[in-house]
Amino acid sequence: MKKPVRLVVILVVLAAMAAGGRYYYLRRNHQAEDDLLHLYGNVDMRQVQLNFQASGRILAIHVREGDRVRKGQLLAEIDPVRYRIRLERLKSELAALTQELQRLEAGTRPEEIARARARVAASEARLRDATLTYNRLARLVKVHVGSQQEVDNARAAMEVALHSLEADKKALDLALAGPRREDIEAARARVMAGRSAVEYARQELADTRLLAPADGILRNRVLEPGDMVSPAQPVLTLALTDPVWVRAYCPETFLGRIAPGMAAEIRTDSYPDRVYRGWLGYISPVAEFTPKNVETPELRTRLVYQVRIFACDPQGELRLGMPATVTIDLDRTANPPGRDRQSACQAD
What we know:
Layout: H1 2-34, E1 36-51, E2 56-61, E3 68-69, E4 74-78, H2 81-106, H3 110-142, H4 148-177, H5 181-206, E5 209-211, E6 216-221, E7 228-229, E8 234-251, E9 263-268, E10 276-289, E11 303-311, E12 323-329, H6 341-346
Antiparallel strand pairs: 1-8, 1-12, 2-4, 2-7, 3-6, 4-5, 6-8, 8-11, 9-10, 9-12, 10-11
Helix pairs in contact: 2-5, 3-4
C-alpha cells in the first residue's frame, strides 16, 4: 500500500511543478509582451519638385521614373543658345570697358604731352608776331601813315593770339595732370558692373542645366523634351532617400513610456526575414484620431500621436508608402535625441 501512495504523491508534486512552471512562463511572456510597443504605419520620405531657374524649351531629360540619382547629377537641359549669345555679348562689352579703364589709369601719353607743348610754342610765336604788327601799325598811325582800321584789326589779332595761347597752356596743364580721379573711379565702377553682368549671364547659362540637389529616386517626369518651361513649372519629382522613416501612430496610453532616441526594429511584408534598425526621432505635440488607413489592434476612436521612426536602409530597399511594423522595447533607455543617422545606424 505504501508504493501506490508514494506514486500518487510524486504525481501530485510533478503536476504542481508543471502548473507553476506554466504559470511562470505565461506571466513572464505576458510581461515581456507588455514591454514591447508594436506600431503599424507606412514608409515615408521627403519629396522635391525640381524646377529650372531659367525659361525656355526643354532640350533633353536624361533620367526616367524609378532611376536612382546622385547629388549633382545632370537630370535635364533646356536650349542654351540665347543665354550663350547674351553671355558672349556681355563679355565683349566688359572687354571694351576694361580697355577704357586701362587707358585712363595709364594717363596721358608722352606724345600727347609733346603735341600740347608744340601748340603752346606755336601760339606764343603767333602772339609775338601779332604784337609786333600791332606796334608797327600804331607808330605809323601817329605819323599819319596808315589807317586806324588796320590798327584795330592788328589789335584784334593780337588779342585772339593771346587767348589762344592761354587755351593751349591750359590744355598742356591737363595733359600733364592726366585723367581726373573721378573719371577713373567711374570707369572702375562701369567695369565692376560689367563683370557682375557677365557673372549673372554665366549663372543664367548654368541654370539651363537641372542638377539633382540630393541623392534620391525619380518619381515622376512632369514635362517632356520639347515642352516650354518657366521657373514656376515643376519638371521632375524626386523622392529623397535620406532620411527614410516610418510614419506611425502611437496610442495615448504609451505616450509616457516613449522618448526620442529610443531604438526600434522595423519589419516589412516585402522582406519578412529582414530587420531594419531604427530609432524614434519625432513625436507629434498634437493628438489626433487614428487615420482610417492605419491598421492597429486598438480601437480606431482612440486618440493617437503621430511618430516618426527613422530607418537605417543602406541597401535602399524601403520604398515610399510601403507598409511596415515597428517594434520598440520600452525597457531600453533612450539615446540622446537628435543623434545623427550614421551613429544611430552603427549602434548595436
